[in-house]
Amino acid sequence: MRPLTVRRLLWICGGLAAVLLACVVLALKLGAVPISVTDLVWNLGRVAIGRSDQLPTEYRLIVFDLRLPRILLGILVGAALSVSGASFQALLRNPLADPFVLGVSSGAALGSILALIFAPQLPFVTPLGAFLGAMATIAAVYFLGRRGGELDSTTLLLGGVISASFLSAIIMFLMTTLAGRDLRGMVFWLMGDLSTPVPPGLRWIFTMGLLVGIGAIYSTSADLNLLLTGEREAIHLGVDATRVKLVVYVSASLLTALAVSASGAIGYVGLLVPHAMRLLFGSDYRVLIPASALGGAIAIVLADTLARTVVAPTELPVGAMTAMAGAPVFIYLLRRGMR
Predict the structure, then answer these.
(1) CATH number at 76-338
(2) Given this model, what pLDDT does residue 87 score?
């Protein structure tokens, strides 16, 4: 493992941030109504100097009311899912761990649906229900994956797949009670959808919850490096394994719940992005956590741009784009692990 320096961390994060900025510009440019880069830069400059009133009405509607909020939501969702996946992979010592594969996303989706059915009038009911569903699911998968007092990777993965299938069946049953128009919207949301903006009253909760969750996981990054060698070895080296597990499970469940409540179950981001960042920058979690956050944001912005443009003006679910890229990677990692 290469020694970590502040300069190296800043270079990595700065490079990824530059790539993310380029992806944001590309996403603002592309769509059913294409916009030239020159006009985009010129009008963004107007907004920066406080002359947004000079923008054409149609331009303001397309760029600032439709595309930009969607891109910002994609950045937050991608960062949340990627950091959640990276932390699950370290804590469970399973390279295939991912909120979607382990069923945590399905648990969060079910919690959101149940909260909306039984208490739609309560404030913040959707993220709260998603959080409780995610916590219950990861707890069940963790206990299903234990064999002889130790975590077994194969049993853990099987328990996650079974839990996801069972929770999906419950979701399908609940959806049969919905009206036709509501059913179509729910199906699209379950496949991953960024077209519905977060309500203004929930935006600050979503953003603050994201920052708190990533910060809490990053505070355990040195301990996660030691836990990769094994729980007993890490405890002998002074790691408080119980505290690290509690912090990571709660924080990763919070991140997954926020992402699912805002955009539905977008799969394989937490699997694909951390592995790509490991190949590029190594397995030091002090680098991997911020790199995964930025890499996840890049992946979701690109996937959503592709979903909006590949069959424009019709839109595809974002989850379909990520699944087409993530499922082959999952199969490859599974086969490599078996060998």
Answers:
(1) 1.10.3470.10
(2) 92
